[in-house]
Amino acid sequence: MAGRPRRSVLYMPGSNARALEKAKTIPADALIFDLEDAVAPDDKVMAREQVCAAAAAGGYGGREVVIRVNALETPWGAADIMAACKAAPDAILIPKVIHSGDIISAAKLLQSVHAPKKVRLWAMMETPMAILNARTIAARAVYDDNRLDCLVMGTNDLIKESRARALHDRFAVVPWLAMTLAAARAYRLDIIDGVYNDFRDVEGFRDECEKGRILGMDGKTLIHPTQVAPCNEIFSPSEEEVEWSRKVIDAFGRPENEKKGVIVVEGHMVERLHFSMAQRVVEIADQIRELEASLG
Ligand SMILES: CC(C)(COP(=O)(O)OP(=O)(O)OC[C@H]1O[C@@H](n2cnc3c(N)ncnc32)[C@H](O)[C@@H]1OP(=O)(O)O)[C@@H](O)C(=O)NCCC(=O)NCCSC(=O)C[C@H](O)C(=O)O
Ligand SMILES: [Mg+2]
Fold first, then answer.
1. Calpha distance 243→145 (Å, rounded)
2. Domain named HpcH/HpaI aldolase/citrate lyase: which ranges (predicted)?
């Protein structure tokens, strides 16, 4: 079973009321209302109230609504989580995760206020220690208190913490992406690529989306509405992929192939694993169609 589409995941500062309203018209698959780095300390409390009111009021259609809280050890973290639970967004995004204990603490807080099970946890992978602990963080997905659904790459913080250079080829970043992706997949989690800061550079952005897609990312985090359409296009299965996948599914569905592990479709060797891949492509394409139809 394919998860829900998470191609385009748009951040907005929780202090920006105009952005929170405009998001209702932007065709992003998911929205992150940020209380953390995009909000100045003096605006934190106002942003918390504004974001929670917006999430509780709804109006975002089929888009996933995610609240990024401040880290638990900050003066705002615990109150952010409590307020976010009441607003019942689709997920709460925990920043600056270091180890699996951060996910356990957040899950306990959610449990203590009886947050509905539909409120999931997402984890920002943006500290060097999170990369080293990626496996044990992702492994929280199989525990009883599991609410973990998705890992989000925080490449700006990773670049800062590691003193790497932020080059367009992402020479320094790719190993962190690949390591975290392996951890996510090992525990059947989704994983979303980091942001592209030069939001006016359309070609550079497209290239970075393509590369993230090639690596296996489910989508990309975004900072500006103009990034949504190209991101959706690049992270959607292409018409050719869907057409080919339907052929593979049809071929394995024929009576003569029912018990076969490997067959030939249009000159290509196709195994049962390709059948599963084809099913996922078609399911995700169907879900994208439904989501886009619901957004009008
Ligand atoms: C980057 C921006 C500050 C640019 O703002 P601005 O110059 O005002 O943009 P525009 O004038 O082009 O805006 C046009 C209209 O679009 C709306 N808008 C802009 N951005 C958003 C958005 N993100 N969501 C929703 N709506 C948005 C404007 O309101 C305008 O609307 P209208 O009035 O109708 O014309 C700005 O885009 C911005 O703030 N982006 C998000 C920044 C952010 O949230 N940063 C934090 C997350 S990234 C991060 O933390 C990475 C991670 O943690 C890591 O470590 O890597
Ligand atoms: Mg960050």
1. 40
2. 7-225
Residues, beta carbon < 5 Å, ion ligand 2: 126, 154, 157
Give the domain-ending residue among 216, 235, 254. 235
Is 165 a domain residue? Answer: yes
- CATH, residue 38: 3.20.20.60
pLDDT at 143: 82
Question: Do 102 and 115 have their domain in common?
Answer: yes
Q: Which domain holds residue 266?
A: 239-295
**Final residue before a domain boundary, out of 197, 214, 235:** 235
Instruction: Work out the end-to-end distance of the chain between its first and last CA atoms, rounded to an integer number of angstroms.
Output: 25
Of all protein residues, whose CA lies closest to atom 4 belonging to ligand 1? Answer: 224
Q: Model's pTM, two decimal places? A: 0.97
β-bridge mates for residue 193, sequence order: 220
SS3 221: strand
2 located within any domain: no
In the prediction, which pLDDT does 37 show? Answer: 97
Q: What pLDDT does residue 282 have? A: 97
Closest CA to 133 of 170, 159, 168, 96: 96
Write out the DSSP string of 26-94.
S--SEEEEE-STTS-GGGHHHHHHHHHHHHHH---TTSEEEEEPPPTTSSSHHHHHHHHHHH--SEEEE
Parts of the chain with a pLDDT under 70: 1
Six-digit token pair at 229? 């359409």
Q: Which residue has the tokens 């208190």?
A: 145
The number of the ligand 1 atom at minimal distance from the alpha carbon of 34 is 44
- Pocket residues for ligand 1 (CB within 6 Å)? 10-13, 18-19, 22-23, 34, 37-38, 126, 154-157, 194-195, 199, 223-225
Predicted confidence at residue 146, as pLDDT, reads 84
Count of domains forming the chain: 2
Q: Give me the pLDDT at residue 1, please.
A: 60
